[in-house]
Amino acid sequence: xxxxxxxxxxxxxxxxxxxxxxxxxxxxxxxxxxxxxxxxxxxxxxxxxxxxxxxxxxxxxxxxxxxxxxxxxxxxxxxxxxxxxxxxxxxxxxxxxxxxxxxxxxxxxxxxxxxxxxxxxxxxxxxxxxxxxxxxxxxxxx
Length: 142
Hints:
Immunoglobulin-like; copper; alpha/beta; globular; 8 strands; Cupredoxin; 2 helices; about 140 residues; four-stranded mixed β-sheet; BlueCu_1
């Protein structure tokens, strides 16, 4: 038996081969859906691990918040009353740390590499007023 492959050199034959290759390549892909039973707990754990890794790599203390990758690390920080919190901007763009929602206190713009500190006597929500999707929380433990 002789297989006639002359159609492969014709215009339509090239499209047939192209379609075959595309379908063949895509048919081997597996659909991967992550199995997360408690998404919030998983995200919180991942945030904590990422924040601790960032602090360890930068040799940063426990009452310090690092701004990097358009996020505050950690997003939630537990402190003792009277502790001093330090924000360090390690990102490539300016950020600030401002009380949410009224901006009762603010660091003002922090250029990359700059830092700001504040003594904390109560819990606060805060955000970056320059990039309003960036949010964090300070919890003063009794």
